[in-house]
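Reproducibility note. Readers wishing to regenerate the assembly model reported in the main text can use the exact inputs given here. Chain order matters: entities are listed in the order in which they were concatenated for prediction.
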Amino acid sequence: SYELTQPPSVSASPGQTASITCSGDKLGDKYASWYQQKPGQSPVMVIYQDSKRPSGIPERFSGSNSGNTATLTISGTQAMDEADYYCQAWDSSTAVFGGGTKLTVL
Amino acid sequence: EVQLLESGGGLVQPGGSLRLSCAASGFTFSSYAMNWVRQAPGKGLEWVSAISGSAAGIYNAGSTYYADSVKGRFAFARDSTKNTMYLQMNSLRAEDTAVYYCAKGESVGAVGTGFDYWGQGTLVTVSS
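Running the prediction on these inputs yields the following structure tokens for the assembly.
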């Protein structure tokens, strides 16, 4: 079965850039989406189709996807960005999520 | 405004059954693929099932897809007259304990897109 691998944790200082990677076999041939989840809340889509931002998502969130790796980049990280982040893609009519990355804003 | 409201969660014994509902509003429900995603306590997200929308074409509309972990035990259905979707869960196991979210596909038609709106979730606990 298809697997997506994320680092368990990433940290960034306020104002710095945070990058979260998601690795999977030929992931660049698929569309990747990213979700933010804060404690006790439902997930929120922050990136879809590799690099598109849904309405209402700040411009500091961006995404890319090439080769075997998709990347979520948060420019000018803010304290409110501290959350768990999940990547997601489809493989053979099955949706797959990465294991999640906890972003800590120090 | 898109809204998704789950209901039906609760405590059930191993081997039992439960039916979850998700009432949708604010968009053309029948056109979009819809999904169920679950999250065990303290764990990550796990996709459970999807159903394609009417815009997927006459041959694919209403097609259902399942994670291997629930295949043969869970059944996904939608009633477009009520803008409601259902997840019938049978032969429940302790490992099915999770918060279950309904989630809307971000494009019309076929499955295979991201999930742009999520419900608040409903907790299912499988325990004796």
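We highlight two features of this model. The interface with chain A takes residues 35, 37, 44-47, 50, 65, 67-68, 101, 103, 106, 111-116, 118-121 of chain B (CB under 8 Å). The first strand of chain B starts at residue 3 and ends at 7.
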